[in-house]
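Bit of a strange request maybe. I'm writing a small parser for structure token strings and I need a real example to test against, not something I typed by hand. Could someone generate the tokens for this chain?
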Amino acid sequence: MIIRDIMTTQLVTVAPDDTLARAISLFRQHHFHHLPVARSVSVRDPQPDDQERRKVQRVLAGVLTSQDIDLQAALARQNPAAAGQQSWQERLVAEVMHRGLIRVTPTTSVAAAAQILVERNLTYLPVVEYAAEQEPALAEQQAILVGLVTRSDLLMALSRAMGAFEPGMQLNLALPLGDMSFLARTLLLAAELHISVRSILAVPVDDGVPRVATLRLGTINPAPLLMRLQKEGIQYSFGNALVEGE
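Reply from user aminoacidic:
Good idea to test on real output. This should exercise your parser:
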């Protein structure tokens, strides 16, 4: 799974020369915690008929967060004399926004994006594309904003991958010493019984060996499969403790 599959593309943005007052209005209206800052540029849009057409793209300039707004308000309260000269809300977004951003592309893997979010303690990542024909230095300046991915997007993707939004049940299989033959046999039994398996997750623990495989079954009546697992001595659970087949 890649970022293109889960990113948000319907973006609300502010421009670098917008005021903080406008950004505050957008934060309140949409209940956001961060706003991408982008400037619009007109670029040539190649057409099959070779007609010269233009389209507008958004070049990423930075990100403004609700914490940035709170900080500016706090500073104004601490220094009312300076605030009297110019309302802090009339400051430009470009003066406050974060410029040095970590960003990903639509083809970045979801796993890599999740690692970045956790390691850097971030809650969002801008998603950008670069024109292939641009020089590297120019491409960095012309990062076209195409989306945004947040921790919530990643959690929703995990939930969907685990089949949380589909009817069925979760089955946990014990994998002694990481032996995947138990998982393989279970999948064969499910196929024989015409029970669909919506997702499979086997996560390695500290030693790099998965001890449990989690399956999302597309049925609310797993009794036939459970009986076969017990008969073949395959440990499973769909609650807390693993049940060992008799």
